[in-house]
Amino acid sequence: MANTANNDGTVYLVGAGPGDLGLVTLRAKECIENADVLVYDHLANPDMLGWARDNAEIIYAGKQPGESRTQQEINALLIDKAREGKIVVRLKGGDPFVFGRGAEEAQEIANAGIPFEIVPGVTSAIAGPAYAGIPLTHRAHNSHVTFFTGHEDPAKTESAIDYAALAKLGGTQVMLMGMERLGAVTGEMLKHGVRGDLPVALVCRATTGQQETLTGTVSDIAQKALAKGFEPPAVAVFGGVVSLRGNLNWYEKRPLLGKRIVVTRTRKQASVLSNKLRALGAHVIELPTIRLEAPSNLREFAELVQDAHGYDWIVFTSVNGVEAFFDIFFKLYDDAREIGGVRIAAIGPATAQRVKDFHLHVDLQPEEFVAEAVVREFKKQGSMENERILVVHAEKARDVLPKELSVAGAIVDEAFAYRTVPEARDTSGARRQLAEHGADLITFTSSSTVENFLALGLPWPKGMRIASIGPITSKTVRDQGLIVDIEARRHDIDGLVQAIRELFAR
Question: Which of 77, 273, 474, 501 fits 468 for a cystine, CB–CB 3.0-4.6 Å?
Fold first, then answer.
């Protein structure tokens, strides 16, 4: 993705897919990661912006009805930014060439002599029905599919849709962007001979944790949508294939569908928890409250890492500590054997696994994922008198572990591997989303996520409950005068997800 010789940048017209992050193409993700400038529409999932570089310029282009940025302004913006020699990514919901203005934007860019690339996306015209359990083709039902839009160019004096031809054609017909004209469209269909009992499905907010599907017939679907308060974005599917939804509806049966869950972990770590919750159907609001930074005294940490081979034990209390330690270690040494005969203890299976990823053995791992359990395990090993132990953890972490090990006779040094600072950025607009639409549940994975979330001073949404990863985090929640609704029995991400499932199953 290099710039061209004439110093112009390149514009990438990228399909952002229908909403589910898992349906974004690898090429789209690569473009976002490399972008200098990102221009995105309201239908593009804002969580994708988390893939952008910290110094990327992010511009919201709107495109909701009534918003002020015109198509001409967007075209000019893309061209101007490219002429500054920048890599410009234009994120468009669905596919850029399916009923969007992508083709018009591409024409303007081509006319300006700017290099460009089209990155196709999964269109909601296909993904929406699929996530509602409606196959667009089936040998017993149809041999062709027609796509049409209910939202035409307002400058046209008459509709370009040939309703008589649609009625004659039959098969499966999919309408995009026509919710506000649904009554007029179905009226025209009936007028031109489409049978009133033809099955219809409306899939609203398709592929997201808030997906809803409404079924009916051509004669009653508009009335039903009005009564239910269905709003765009929605995809309408007309045809016999709609009847197959009865036993092919897979997505809407997920246990957390429709639940709005806030994830407060760091931006880098959030995806692990978020992806597990999304796989269960939840609508995840990623609102990182903390960011990891190098420790205040990086030189001191590096010196302790360099001398790690001189200890009897290294204790890792988190995945972050493991990563920070080995990041420095392999800058200092090019051979893992330089760690010597030191034994390794780890709190929690995720921490232990991260150590194993570096092809090192974990000698001690307590069943409970708290500092006190490590001390108990050490004591089972026998006398700790004069054992040299290096505890790798965050700055300002609880000092229970070093204290208890010292009391038991060990010589303990603390290696501060990283520090947590409040996350000031909100690229995806998660705070506004929480304020406007609320949430069912908020997840806390450490004491610092609790403290930093409350420090943001956001209004607490009505009825939002709390899920905590373990007793230490829960204590912090209670110390702040809040109630813990569910605590993970196993104090890791899988345990937290299981607890959330149990909470909503009650």
Answer: 474
Catalytic-residue membership of 335: no
- Helix, strand, coil abundance in the chain, percent, nearest 5: 40, 20, 40
Is 396 noted as a catalytic residue in this protein?
no
- Could you tell me the fold of the domain covering 10-122? Cobalt-precorrin-4 Transmethylase; domain 1 (3.40.1010)
Catalytic residue among 8, 20, 63, 189: 63
At 123, the amino acid letter reads T
293-422: what CATH class?
A: alpha beta
Burial of 13 (C-beta count, 10 Å sphere; 0-12/13-18/19+): buried
For the chain, the distance separating the N- and C-terminal CA atoms, rounded to the nearest angstrom, is 51
CA distance 235 to 100: 14
Give dist(CA 292, CA 266) in Å, integer.
7
Asked about 379 being catalytic, the answer comes back as no
Could you say which architecture CATH assigns to the domain 260-289+423-505? 3-Layer(aba) Sandwich (3.40)
Architecture of the 126-253 domain: 2-Layer Sandwich (3.30)
Question: Tokens 């092809």 — which residue?
Answer: 359
Confidence of residue 4 (pLDDT cuts 50, 70, 90): very low
419-457 pLDDT per residue, tens: 988 887 787 788 988 988 899 999 999 888 899 899 888
The mean predicted confidence, pLDDT, of the chain is 90
- Tell me which of 8, 36, 41, 95 is the catalytic residue: 41
Q: Where are the beta strands (DSSP E) in 224-274?
A: 234-238, 260-263
- Kindly name the residue from 175, 177, 189, 384 that is annotated as catalytic: 177
